[in-house]
């Protein structure tokens, strides 16, 4: 463990210890007191957990769980959770995410779950698909596991069949190219410009709004053209390299040609959404399926899913980002045993919450068996083309983890570079070369601190 991380963990531990001592002096609790667990869930999918929590609270009157919603962006999530630990107000349970799990482990926020495996239940490390579980094994602490994946997910194209038909545009086909995707998007937006309310070909990101290009899109794209956001062997980033610049030009095109609504609209408070019938396509994941289904059903619109388009890449033709969101326990939680009891129940095969989520259509279980033959494959349509999800998981690329807080810097500078290109007419070459320099500096800073 490096001195910087040890110091942060020591400060968090001291604050938590002082807080627990001060609370202990308030009075003796009743033997029948109810333990309250706070669960911080990801924005956009927090509603998916409502039936899960209701089920748990009904079965466990002595341990009640209340759901809170995390901030919308990764940098804000990391800052918020880290600050909550230092102030003694961290949630007991939280949605860990493959793209920020290392950042939280680095500041000592996340409990190491290895010590809990096999206790008070049946959860074992071997039960999970190892490719997805590996996202929660920190670079700096390779013997730890700081989260358990809830879903095995990969991006696909959700598309509104009703809008496609009205626009007279052919549905996406398996094996379609990125150029065909751009052409389809352009046709839909040109037709949509004449509609009231206006319709766009694609959204800025999952759920509609965004100020950046989603990592699940740019990481696999960069990988396929032969470059990377982070290479662990050389400890470098190449997001400003010539190959990367060529990729960014393709990724930015939908933002520049009207396929996606103007940046000011997409980054605003009320962006057009797929579930609202204002966007004909959305590159997204199964976790948002219940939201899409409810919204489009209310509007009496039909929809389905299609494979991601392909490119003529140097290393791969696939531009499919894969990953997961998971469950973690805060290292400063004063209710770890109760939290672990909930986690055990959540992953149980009979009545656990993961099966409730699978029945709602929001996930593919993060196990080899669940991916191959889970109950999600037999749910009522839409979507009808469920094999798309299995193919996406098989051909997906999981984002590389950057050391420490360098991941937060990467998330921030990608958004900054996009804003410079769209709002200030800065060239893609200049904007992303500048971004690369900041990521490289952040990586060096983390390595120097070890």
Structure description:
Mean pLDDT is 90; it is low at 1-30. The protein has a 5-stranded mixed β-sheet. It is 42% helix and 11% strand. The longest helix has 22 residues, at 3-24. It has 450 residues and is an alpha/beta fold. Helix 8 (215-224) crosses helix 9 (242-256) and helix 16 (406-424) packs antiparallel against helix 17 (428-448). The chain has 2 domains: 3-153 and 323-393, Periplasmic binding protein-like II (D-Maltodextrin-Binding Protein, domain 2); 156-319 and 402-448, D-Maltodextrin-Binding Protein, domain 2 (3-Layer(aba) Sandwich), CATH 3.40.190.10. The protein has helices spanning 3-24, 50-59, 74-86, 101-106, 130-133, 161-167, 178-192, 215-224, 242-256, 263-266, 289-298, 336-346, 353-360, 368-373, 387-394, 406-424, 428-448; strands at residues 35-41, 63-69, 93-97, 148-149, 153-154, 156-160, 200-202, 279-284, 303-306, 321-323, 325-329, 397-398. One of its GO terms (cellular component) is cell envelope. It is found in: Cell envelope. InterPro entries: Bact_solute-bd_prot1, SBP, SBP_1_CS. Keywords: Periplasm, Signal, Transport. One of its GO terms (biological process) is transmembrane transport.
The overall strand count is 12
The 3D shape can be described as globular
Biggest sheet character? 5 strands, mixed
Mean pLDDT: 90
* CATH level-4 homologous superfamily of the largest domain: Periplasmic binding protein-like II
Multimerization status? single chain
Through-space gap between termini = 8 Å
Strand content: 5-15%
What's the order of the H and E elements?
Answer: HEHEHEHHEEEHHEHHHEHEEEHHHHEHH
Text of the CATH class of the largest domain: Alpha Beta
**Which structural class fits the helix and strand makeup?**
alpha/beta
How many structurally independent domains?
A: 2
What percentage of residues falls in helices of 4 or more residues? Answer: 40-55%
The name CATH uses for the topology of the largest domain is D-Maltodextrin-Binding Protein, domain 2
Q: What is the spatial order of strands in the main beta sheet?
A: 2-1-3-11-4
Q: Give unreliable regions as ranges.
A: 1-30
CATH architecture of the largest domain: 3-Layer(aba) Sandwich
Helical stretch tally:
17
**What is the radius of gyration computed over CA atoms, rounded to a whole number of angstroms?**
22 Å
Subcellular location: Cell envelope
GO biological process, one term: transmembrane transport
Keywords: Periplasm, Signal, Transport
InterPro entries: Bact_solute-bd_prot1, SBP, SBP_1_CS
